Amino acid sequence: MLQAVRRGERHASEELLPLVYQELRHLAAARMAQEAAGQTLQATALVHEAWLRMVGDNDQGWQNRAHFFGAASEAMRRILVDNARHKARIKHGGGQIRLDISDLELSASTPDEKILLINEALEQLQKDDPEKARIVVMKFFGGMTNQEVGENLGVTERTVERQWAYAKARLFQIIRTQP
Amino acid sequence: MGLCESPALSNNQDATVNGRESESPAKGNMVKPSEEAFFEAALNLVEPNARRAFLEQACAGNADLRARIESLLVAAQEGEVFFKEAERFELPRSLPAAAAVGNGNTELSPDEGLGNRIGNYKLLQKIGEGGCGVVYMAEQEKPVRRRIALKIIKLGMDTKNVIARFEAEQQALAMMDHPNIARVLDAGATETGRPFFVMELVRGVKITQYCDENNLDTCERLELFIQICQAIQHAHQKGIIHRDIKPSNVLVTLHDGRPVPKVIDFGIAKAIETRLTDKTLFTAFEQIIGTPAYMSPEQAEMSGLDIDTRSDIYSLGVLLYELLTSKTPFDPKELLQNGVDEMRRRLREQEPQRPSTMVTTMQGAELVATAKNRHSEPPKLISMLSGDLDWIVMKALEKDRRRRYETANGLAMDIGRYLDNAPVIARPPTRLYLIEKLIRRNKVLFFAGFAVAAALIIGLGTSTRLYFLEKAALEREVVAEAQAEMARANEADLRRLAETREKITQATVLLNDERYEDADELMSAIQITQPTVEGAAVFRTLGEYHAFENQWKEAASRFTTLLEIDRLDGWDVGTLDYLECGPALIESADRENYEKFRQAAVTRFASGKYPFADRIIKISLLLPPNPTLLNNLKPMADGVVKSFATNADTSDDIFLAAWRSVSMALMKYRSGNYVQSADWCERCLGYQDYIAPRTATAHVILAMDNQKLGKTAAAKVELAQARQIIEAKYKVPMDRGTPSQGFWFDWQFAHILLQEASTLIESGGKTVPST
User: Fold this and answer.
1) What is this model's ipTM?
2) CA–CA separation, B632 vs B356, rounded Å?
3) What is the residue range of B566's domain?
4) Do B509 and B647 reside in the same domain of the chain?
5) Does A6 touch chain B (CB under 8 A)?
6) Which residues contact B84 (CB under 8 A, 6 or more apart)?
7) 0.90 cut: is pTM over it?
């Protein structure tokens, strides 16, 4: 699989997703032990670590990294959203939970609730403007730098920075106006 | 359309055009780019008026567009906080098994199960998890049956490199043999490709936990801590830096009912250190490398190659801090909450609270509990910490590693001094004075004493020889990977530096025992390339020792080294060390080097802006100068004269004013201005402040002035007065002196001038001696 990614096949990036997903789950579970010792877990660290584990630090080809990080960001999104849904279900005693903006003070929402709100808004943005949605996935869930996102999408860092600012504003608008 | 394309363009259009254009609003896809472009441009205009003006012009007549953009701008601002907070999501503690993706068979690394075998080892029981791996108690079957601790690294690392790095250091690790160090026995790779380390099994609890559970008082804690320092010292002597000292790596076990601390995990932090060239990977990785609370500023910088034994000293300081106060200097959660750059900035710039202040600011219940755990009450604990212990901890935690203790042993010795009620090295502001005072204490045997010093020397000698033998063998046999080779070269450098520092510490101990010759020999071969406070103290003491023994050549050589050390750090400004070096050079009849010395001094301080320029004037004119040098001293002399115009002559500074008068008298004498020189001498003698060698010097210069001015009778009177004072002093053995009695070098200065004056007056000469 990784060989395929190394050869730069585009679809390999998609096939990589399940693999990355598993790896990230493993790593996240392993990291949890550290938290008590004063560590803050960060998605970006996990994703980079997963890259190291799966590809190693010898492979410096940015195209491979771009594929990988794209996939890892999406995997991280799914992990976090699944996790947040899971926790929300526990909290609300089971059943399908639909977050209702009217009874949820935005500033008082937990990070998990925020993730679900962002994810819903992101689904809408994906329909209007898929390119910005990809930037959000990579920046927010994958913790990638502007440079990394730029390499992935073939645009400049400055462009990434501008589009990310715009996308955030759009997302927050959507979140606030959601029914 | 022109309107929609670019905000820059729209600025050039007039309002009418804008208005007309906007009446045919572009819909759908056409709106988006303009909305986005305007939004971005407006977002960059932080100043509210500028932003308003821009929007008015850009959206003139299109209220709808403007509303959309303003709404976006508000969303951008309010959303900022929202996204920041959302980024604080917790990674899932237990992840939902029902993966939304995945097509099976992607399980990469099944956990190593109990009862399984890894190499020669059988896993028996999981005994710990955290840091970078899981620790198991395991049984070794061959070659001996024994229980060991086996740590499996969980980090996603390149196992081959980890093991290569470990092996590069294994020779040195194997030489560590200390009761307070858990030995690292072996390393390898599991079947799933994870690196593992085999260590001596230590059945103990974290040192902080042990101390609290047993209500150890502060002295008992310090005694345990001293043992830890000795363990680290031992490792440093072998060139091993721990790099990850923290409570969970220091376990306490009971041995015959007595607590024995054991430092574990030696060599592991080094081995799993990632070598990455890619900067982005680097910045991401540092977040999971270690607990930042124990990390030295230079470690946090992650420059990688620049870690040395003094990073361990810092971590020891943090550990000591926590043992004393129950807190670390920086709260680990707060350290990371604003990102890695902010963490680095704080570690680099923010001074931590002193331990006593930290305890004082605790909440009531916390304070009582902290004191109770230390078998104490709050006021007692606070007063115990403030003073010496504050200073000791803060010296270990210095941001600038050159100002930390040179060695772990140095830290331990200072704590020993505290326990013995002796003055501690760490205590400013009269740092140098105290070091000297300490070295001169005759009777005090601090805890390390001679036995430790001897053991250190023997140990170092043997281990160094063994090390080189081993290293030679290693180099013959192994064609190492380039990476491992680099690591070794780096280690060798570190070892050399560690040895230098170690020798300085040994010399400090020897000098404390008045074993000057041994200390002198120890220092004879070392090359100091880094600033070192303790090293300066050692060389100063050695120079003085030789001076008192009338071994001027040696004295001059030690003082010259001392000045070199001072200059490495800029500490020569305002120190008295120049005044020690000058007379020693002259007494050793080394005119050539005295010339070099005074040239360098004058060049160094030529701007005249230094507070003690008068000392440089004086020391540079102890022998007649050439005209160029004299000329170069003029700016300094002007500065000194100016200082009299301001405050130097007021009562609280008579001490310094009198010294400055002497310097000016000599300046004027060397310039051939005998009348003014005599005035400065009278001025000095007129102050209500008697310091014998200074008064004698003023009489000497005045005698020479009188001689030059033809008042030979007066010259003889002054000379006799000076001679009386000086000869009385030289009838007894010289000691260092004090500021109020005058130092030995002040006497030496007077003594050298007296000889010049005697020659001048007794020969009846009236001319300025030739240069």
Assistant:
1) 0.76
2) 50
3) 525-762
4) no
5) no
6) none
7) no
